[in-house]
Amino acid sequence: MEKKNIDWSNLGFGYMETDKRYVATYKDGKWDEGKLISDSYITMSECACVLQYAQTIFEGMKAYTTQDGRTVVFRPDLNAKRFADSARRMEMPVLSEEQYIDSIKQVVKANEAYVPPYGTGATLYLRPYMFGINPVIGVKPATEFQYRVFATPVGPYFKGGAKPITIKVSDYDRAAPRGTGNIKAGLNYAMSLHAIVEAHEQGFDENMYLDPQTRRKVEETGGANFLFITKDNKVVTPKSDSILPSVTRRSLMYVAKEYLGLETEEREVYFDEIKDFAECGLCGTAAVISPVGKINDHGKEICLPSGMEKMGPITQKLYETLTGIQMGLVEAPEGWICEIK
Ligand code: PLP
Ligand code: COI
Question: In this structure, which of 74, 139, 152, 202 has its CB flanked by the most CB atoms within 10 Å?
Fold first, then answer.
């Protein structure tokens, strides 16, 4: 199959319309079987629940070209499960794992010409999402829903790729205690828009959110979980009920322990501890692992010893092993790689 004529190596993290998207409709208490369509626009009532009350959830995944030319996706079962958790919390109908994975396979297959070739640094980003579509004016859940998946080729989430970034401690909270921080609901991102615009205006790449209850513990950023490396090479990640259970983070903790023989800890991380860490990274599907060089706390800078020039050595090893697994250079644990045939 011939690939599209795209300047793959210079792609940023943006939207490009591709040929096909998947749509399934939930009506009268059941999902239809879903299909691929060409139209990228959606028509709906002015009073659709998603427009009035933000009843929408999503996922983020990627398709990769391996070194030997196969097209694969990474651990789609975990995204399917998290999507179901998001649906339950948002009073939306659960889509079966089987239909979710089938929809991903169909969209990747139908847009295979847009899956960036191996070695370009780009990937095909997949965005499954669901929203309440029928008119709702009293505050209550919709009864009709659309589930969709589109695909768009992307480059690095942060400009500069693997260059360390600078983040700031946000004065805003991302998620309330007992709120929706642990699911992937659009509303979590809507409330972060003001904070990210402010951070960018001030010259920062991202926000570090603290726990809303005590504001003493590290939570996550707007779109990624944190990993910290201690000076004695332990991999530490924050444990909290109000952060998103990142597939990338869970995979990296496994890689750290089982592939690199490092000690790992998922525990509460106090902001005061950060000055003692050797490395810091943001991990997620879009972010992969983006090294953090500096954290600005209201004008006070914490400079990670790994510096602003390159990734720290442990972050680099984690990055190479994870992307090696995704691109077929390193043997994957059973069930992590789903080939698109
Ligand atoms: N945290 C937030 C808030 C996110 O939006 C994401 C992105 O999906 C992540 C963490 C990373 O999760 P994953 O590794 O599953 O992409
Ligand atoms: C992802 O990593 O897939 C996300 O959904 C994060 C988003 C900020 C792009």
Answer: 74
- Per-residue pLDDT tens digits for 199-249: 999 999 999 999 999 999 999 999 999 999 999 999 999 999 999 999 999
Would you say the CB of residue 227 lies under 6 angstroms from ligand 1?
Answer: no
Amino acid, single-letter form, for residue 158: F
DSSP tag of 217: B
CB-neighbour burial class of residue 54 (10 A; exposed 0-12, middle 13-18, buried 19+) = middle
Mutate to test the pocket of ligand 2, among 282, 285, 289, 326 (most ligand atoms within 8 A of CB): 285
Which residue's structure tokens are 């972010």? 287
Alpha-carbon distances, residue 285 vs 10, 26, 64, 121, 297 (angstroms)? 19, 28, 12, 14, 26
Cβ burial of 306 (10 Å; 0-12, 13-18, 19+) is buried
pTM score, whole prediction: 0.98
Q: Residue 241, Cβ neighbours under 10 Å: how many?
A: 12
Whether ligand 1 lies within 6 angstroms of the CB of 34 is answered as: no
